[in-house]
Design brief:
heterodimer; A: globular; B: mainly alpha; 81% helix; 0% strand
């Protein structure tokens, strides 16, 4: 968690004050230092939840379900963040906060609704096993949206620019801008993983609250 | 002296960064609270079980 925060702060300070302004977007481009990590984590989380759902449904590994239920709210927050920071960038660059006809924006918004739908579905079912199964199926149905988000800027006409980092011929961004960006992406990922591990650990312990190992664990330490 | 607002679109840029760190803070608090609440609930269950013995 500390490593993540340090990397994030390094990237943010360098991105804000030491990276040169973009020749077209000027200083507004600096929003990418928070927008890109949020957008990557938003899509990565949903993809991992889909993989965990498959593992849970096929091999019935309980920790997979604990993982999906723990990751959902974090994924939703980072999707919200990607949308809001994107919107703040869009206002000075595109002249609008939001464009309904844009495939990248609307597919990302759909992802937020998928996260919220997943959480609502889980919350509406009391039986944990039933909730695990049904919500995993829901996640898998929604997984079709992940490649749509990623390729939307190539498949359809979009205000959103095409990929800058994930390109076969390498990133199309100057090194002085790339280094802080990589620092914020890796830093945010580390921080996100730390938060996810805290949540998964708590969820696994809670799901096994009647078992002996949890009892022993609680009795051993007062600060679990 | 270094002028933090000596950049174009400063209000947009800083708003985005502030919102980013607010959300990071919310996520951190929520993860720590979840852990704390679950452990508290488990302790209550364990105490009840002990009391029944």
């Amino acid at each position: 968690m500390s490593v993540g925060m340090l990397l994030l702060l390094f990237g943010v300070i360098n991105g804000l004050y030491f990276a040169p302004p973009d020749y077209q977007q000027s200083d507004a481009f600096r929003i990418i230092y928070v927008h890109v990590p949020a957008a990557y984590i938003s899509m990565m989380t949903y993809s991992l939840m889909a993989v965990a759902s498959v593992i849970g449904l096929i091999w019935r590994i309980k920790i997979a379900f604990a993982f999906t239920s723990s990751a959902a709210s974090l994924g939703a927050w980072f999707t919200f963040l990607a949308l809001v920071t994107g919107s703040i960038w869009g206002r000075p660059m595109w002249g609008t906060w939001w464009e309904w006809g844009d495939p990248r924006l609307t597919s990302e918004l759909l992802m937020l609704f998928l996260y919220l739908g997943y959480m609502a579905l889980r919350a509406s079912i009391n039986d944990t096993q039933k909730a695990d199964k049904l919500s995993s199926i829901f996640i898998l149905v929604g997984a079709i949206n992940v490649p749509i988000i990623h390729y939307s800027v190539e498949w359809w006409s979009s205000l959103h620019q095409t990929s800058t980092l994930l390109k076969l011929d390498g990133p199309s961004i100057a090194t002085s801008m790339l280094i802080p960006l990589m620092a914020t992406i890796i830093g945010t990922m580390f921080y996100f993983i730390s938060l996810l591990l805290i949540r998964v650990r708590a969820e696994v312990i809670f799901r096994n609250r009647r078992s002996k190992w949890v009892k022993d664990l609680i009795l051993e330490s007062k600060h679990v | 002296m270094f002028d933090f607002f000596d950049m174009e679109y400063a209000s947009f840029v800083y708003s985005a960064f502030v919102i980013f760190f607010i959300v990071i803070g919310i996520c951190t608090k929520s993860a720590l609270d979840l852990n704390k609440n679950y452990m508290k609930t488990i302790r209550i269950i364990l105490n009840e079980l002990e009391a029944k013995k």
